[in-house]
Design brief:
Layout (H helix, E strand, L loop, with lengths): L1 H23 L1 H5 L10 H46 L6 H22 L3 H44 L5 H37 L1 H37 L5 E4 L12 E7 L4 E4 L9 E4 L3 E3 L29
Antiparallel strand pairs: 1-2, 1-5, 2-3, 3-4
Length: about 325
Amino acid sequence: GGVRSQVAAAMAVFKSFVSSVTDANPGKRRNSNRRVPTGDLENALKPQRVLVSAVREMVQECMQSFEALRKAQLTVMRAAQGYLGFDTAGLDESALALLQASSAFFQASESALTKSGLREVSCACDRILKEFAEVAGLIKDRDEAHREFEHYNEKVANILAGPQRSTGDRERLDRNQEKLTLAQKEAHGKRQACETAVRTIVERRTFHVRATLHAALRQYVSAFASLGEGAAPVAEAFIGELKVGTPVEVVGFPEGSEINGLNSVVASVLDQGQLQISIPGEEGPGKAVRSEHLIPVGAAGTGEDDAEGGEGADGADGAAAPGAG
């Protein structure tokens, strides 16, 4: 609860910030290609690079999580298949039908978990970060060339300030003035190249954001939309398995318990995974029992057409692991 509330608060602050920026700068939002003043160019690099790095980290973690989820689904379905191969009576009819529906969903989710497009976004982040690294190299070269120029500029100034009594002194001055001229030319060229590269990458920022943040969010949301679409009917089948009015058998209590093996009916759904069942021959609200102690009797718990892919129980083979062939 604490973490969820902190995340909710952070997202609310971000939403408020985006709204305030948009409302306060409508002209800037319309003119997304405005030129950044030369003095602000290098300052604009850092937040741009930080954003791309953060998107890349998010994408990498999502891909790892999706792969871990895919493997976990495959592992549990293979384990269920092995269990049913050992004990075909180990699942009641309703649970087996829902296992089959879940297996079908796992198979359908393979595409969303493995072909989400996040890898392409990660590659785009890598290419853009490489551009930033190249610009950082140009900035370093520019600064080194400027320091070289300052070195010879100071050296020539010191020579000119001192006495020049000999031919050697004049030759030394000429030599350093020549080096100063070369250093000045080099520094100017490096500065020009650096400014051009920095301006280019900064003014491509709209493209960079769409190729990274925008693309990552699109792929991320699309993957979950696909998963949600496939999971919805299965989730509804699980919810409907023990809806109010469902005839049930009570199981799993110690032998000799007065309600173990009792046939009853779900009277109401309580909190924290509990349901209230009526006790035959007794008045009152009934007894609260956790859902795992109740087996629907009669029709399978998925209902007539509650979940696609869960058309009854055909035996152990129906719960085959995704991709198990």
